[in-house]
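Module 6 notes. Inverse folding takes a fixed backbone as the condition and produces residue identities as the prediction. Think of it as a translation problem where the source language is geometry and the target language is the twenty amino acids. Below is one complete input and output pair. Work through it position by position during the lab.
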């Protein structure tokens, strides 16, 4: 069946394109969802009358795509998953997981535009995930997959190190306080020792008189 796309459809075409698809795909998806209309003279005339507006939207999409590509190419997202001691994942890293991670960064991307299969990521590590943006524009995201157990172990070690550092600081402060008191006591003893002969001399003079 020949149809006219009323919006961009991934791997098929852009708004305003005339494409030929299977009848079932057109009847069950494209036409009911409003993604396309039937190809005929009336509909072609309607699309032609909107050509300027359609082209304007395409230009805006290209500009938005270029801006987003710059951001995505510099972006690193992390996923913490369950994994064994060898680093092998217990589950799969899916496009939905990547989509959710991007959403936390304030970036909304359709799942079907994220090119990652269930077999792509099997071990912890760093991966490159390609994202389809618009027309032939793609971006590559840096994906870091980490083990949940390793993260918890790292956090535990960091906590212990912080506690040890706190105890060491406390011990150093107490030692410094003791040293300060000892210095004060030594200074007081020194002053007393210097004053003692003077007092003794005064007592002697008083006795002689």
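Target side of the pair, the amino acids:
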């Amino acid at each position: 069946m020949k149809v006219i796309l009323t919006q961009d459809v991934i791997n098929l075409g852009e708004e305003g394109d005339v494409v030929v698809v299977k009848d079932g795909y057109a009847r069950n998806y494209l036409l009911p969802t409003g993604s396309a209309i039937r190809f005929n003279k009336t509909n072609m005339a309607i699309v032609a009358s909107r050509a300027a507006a359609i082209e304007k939207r395409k230009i805006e999409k290209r500009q938005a795509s270029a801006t987003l590509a710059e951001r995505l190419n510099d972006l690193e997202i992390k996923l913490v998953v369950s994994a064994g001691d060898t680093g092998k994942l217990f589950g799969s890293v899916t496009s939905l997981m990547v989509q959710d991670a991007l959403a936390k960064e304030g970036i909304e991307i359709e799942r079907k535009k994220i090119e990652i299969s269930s077999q792509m990521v099997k071990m912890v590590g760093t991966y490159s995930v390609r994202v389809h943006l618009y027309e032939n524009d793609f971006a590559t995201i840096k994906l870091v997959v980490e083990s949940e157990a390793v993260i918890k172990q790292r956090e535990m070690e960091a906590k212990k190190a912080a506690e040890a550092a706190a105890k060491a600081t406390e011990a150093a402060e107490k030692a410094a306080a003791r040293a300060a008191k000892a210095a004060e006591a030594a200074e007081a003893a020194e002053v007393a020792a210097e004053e003692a002969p003077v007092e003794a001399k005064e007592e002697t003079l008083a006795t002689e008189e």
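Reference fact for the lab report: The two ends are 136 Å apart (CA to CA).
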